[in-house]
Amino acid sequence: MTTFTLPWPPSMNHYWRNVAGRTLISREGRQYRQKVVVHRPPFMKPIDGRVKVCITANPPDRRRRDLDNMLKPLLDALTHAQVWWDDSQIDDLHIVRGLPVAGGQITLEVADAKP
Questions:
Q1: CA angle 28, 82, 16 (to 5 degrees)
Q2: Beta carbons within 10 angstroms of residue 32's beta carbon
Q3: From 12, 39, 97, 104, which residue has the greatest number of CB atoms within 10 Å?
Q4: Which residues, 6 or more positions from 30, have their beta carbon under 8 angstroms from its beta carbon?
Q5: DSSP conformation letters of 49-88
């Protein structure tokens, strides 16, 4: 199992942009993807098989927010950072809301899923 911490991701509302009829990752989304690449443990190789992911989401403040709005940008950024080859490899996904911390943070536990 590998555990690491990432910055709080943008919501789905800020991750995508529609430009000239095409849906693209926004500037904020591209910047977040780069942050995830930088925070990824350097020794970690992409997981080939099935994956188990446990997420503790510490929001940046006490405002109401849907955890599922940050989940897709987070998983896509982890795919971009080559934590795994594709987020379709995830068989077991747990997410828990933690206490707010300044700026927000995500703590991930990533492991091979055992059948």
A1: 25
A2: 24
A3: 104
A4: none
A5: S-EEEEEEEE-SSSS---THHHHHHHHHHHHHTTSBS-GG
Question: How far separated are the first and last CA of the chain, in Å rounded?
Answer: 15
Expressed as residue numbers, the domain containing 8 is 2-112
Q: What CATH number should be reported for the domain holding residue 102? A: 3.30.1330.70
The first and second tokens of residue 91, run together, are 């068989």
Report the distance separating Cα 85 and Cα 99, nearest Å: 31
Give per-residue pLDDT as tens, 13-51. Answer: 888 888 898 989 999 999 999 999 999 999 999 999 999
pLDDT number for residue 115 = 58
